[in-house]
Design a protein that fits this description.
13 helices, alpha+beta, seven-stranded mixed beta sheet, disordered N terminus, three-stranded antiparallel beta sheet, single chain
Length: about 350
C-alpha cells in the first residue's frame, strides 16, 4: 500500500496543513485558529463497509466548512490498522479491533466506536418467494462447503414454507484483510467449533470454498448477478443494492431481522470494556441481532504534532455530537447514550 505521505505528496510539507485518516474518507478541513492551524488536510484509509456513512459525514462537515476536499481510499480494515501502527496517518478506521499481538508498547492506539453495524447474509434465490431463515450452524456449514445445495435438509427444516431449489449454492466471500470477514467469522466461531478449527477467526479466514469479492460493492454486484448465490454485507449496503436478506437465529432461538433496533439491543446486552475492544456477536437477548459489531476509529493517543492531535480531537467531538444525528438519518444504528458519552470523553484526551 502506498504510504500516506506519498498519497499527499507536497501537502504534508506545506505549512498550515495536516493529514488525518478517518474510516475510508479523506478530508481537507479548515479548523478554528485556536487549534493552531488555518487549514487541516484529513486523509483516510479504512473499511468500505461504513463508506456511505463517511460520505454523509463529509458532506455535513462541508456545510460548516467549505474547505473540505474528499477522496476515498477503502483499502480494508487490515491495511488501515497497519498504517496507523506504522505511524502513517493520524486516524484510521476498521470493523475489527487491532489484534493484541500487533499492538506494541509505544504510543498507545485508542480504538473508539463510531456507530453500530450489522453484517447480513444476502442471497439470490430466483423464483423462490419468502424470507429465508438460517441458523449460525447452517451458515457455518454453507461457508465450510458441507452444505452444498439449497434444498439440503438442514436449510429445509428452517424454512418449511419455502420451496427450495436443488441448485448448488454459489458461495461468495470477501478477500483477505476485510472487516466484514472478521465480524462474520467471529460469530461463526462462537456457534461452530468446526468453523473455528477449519476457517478461524480474523480478517482473513481460511475459506475452503467459494469465490472472492474485493470491495463491499463487489460483493453486492456479484450476489445480484449470480443466481443461487450467498454472501454477506453491511445492512445499509445490502438494502441499497436491493439484495434479499436472511433472518438469523440468535442465542435465544429467535429468527431476527437485522435493523437499527436489533443492533442496538445487542450492544445494550453486551458488557462494554473501558477500551471498547469488545465483541458484540451472538449477544444475549430475545431481540438481539447476532451478527452485530462496532465499527472503530484507530487513533494514536498522542499525535506526533500537537496541532494534529487537537484537530483529531476536534473532529471526533463533532462525530460524537452532530455526527451521530447524520448517522441516524442515514439509517445507521447510533451508539447508546452512555457509550456515546464515554467515547466522547476518551476522544477528548487525544493530544
Amino acid at each position: 500500500m502506498p504510504r500516506l505521505s506519498r498519497l499527499l505528496g507536497s501537502t504534508l510539507a506545506a505549512p498550515l496543513s495536516l493529514a488525518l485518516a478517518i474510516g475510508a474518507t479523506i478530508f481537507t478541513v479548515e479548523i478554528p485558529s485556536t487549534l493552531g492551524q488555518d487549514r487541516v488536510t484529513l486523509v483516510a484509509t479504512g473499511s468500505s463497509l461504513p463508506e456511505p456513512l463517511y460520505v454523509a459525514w463529509a458532506d455535513a462537515f462541508h456545510k460548516a466548512n467549505p474547505a473540505i476536499v474528499i477522496r476515498y481510499l477503502p483499502q480494508g480494515t487490515g491495511e488501515s490498522g497497519q498504517s496507523i501502527l506504522a505511524g502513517s496517518g493520524d486516524l484510521g478506521g476498521g470493523d475489527a479491533p487491532i489484534p493484541d499481538k500487533q499492538l506494541n508498547a509505544g504510543n498507545p492506539i485508542l480504538q473508539l466506536p463510531s456507530v453500530l453495524i450489522g453484517v447480513v447474509i444476502v442471497y439470490n434465490l430466483p423464483e423462490t418467494p419468502g424470507d429465508l431463515r438460517l441458523s449460525g450452524q447452517v451458515v457455518a456449514e454453507i461457508f465450510l462447503g458441507k452444505i452444498k445445495t439449497w434444498n439440503d435438509p438442514a436449510i429445509a427444516r428452517l424454512n418449511p414454507e419455502m420451496k427450495l431449489p436443488g441448485q448448488p449454492i454459489q458461495v461468495i466471500h470477501r478477500t483477505e484483510g476485510k472487516g466484514s470477514n472478521y465480524i462474520l467469522a467471529d460469530y461463526l466461531c462462537k456457534v461452530s467449533p468446526e468453523f473455528l478449527a477449519k476457517a478461524g477467526r480474523g480478517e482473513s479466514p481460511n475459506w475452503p470454498v467459494g469465490t472472492s469479492a474485493g470491495r463491499s460493492q463487489d460483493m453486492s454486484d456479484r450476489v445480484r448477478a449470480t443466481q443461487y448465490s450467498i454472501g454477506y454485507s453491511e445492512l445499509n449496503l445490502a438494502e441499497r443494492a436491493s439484495l434479499r436478506i436472511a433472518r438469523i437465529k440468535n442465542s435465544a432461538n429467535e429468527f431476527i431481522k437485522p435493523t437499527e433496533k436489533t443492533f442496538a439491543n445487542a450492544a445494550l446486552e453486551a458488557k462494554i470494556s473501558d477500551d471498547f475492544r469488545v465483541s458484540l456477536t451472538n449477544a444475549p437477548g430475545k431481540e438481539s441481532y447476532p451478527i452485530t459489531s462496532f465499527t472503530w476509529f484507530y487513533v494514536p493517543a498522542k499525535a506526533k504534532d500537537p496541532s494534529r492531535g487537537r484537530a483529531v480531537a476536534a473532529y471526533l467531538k463533532w462525530i460524537y455530537s452532530d455526527g451521530q444525528t447524520v448517522a441516524e438519518n442515514q439509517g445507521y444504528a447510533t451508539l447508546p447514550k452512555e457509550l456515546l458519552a464515554k467515547a466522547a470523553a476518551t476522544a477528548a484526551t487525544i493530544r
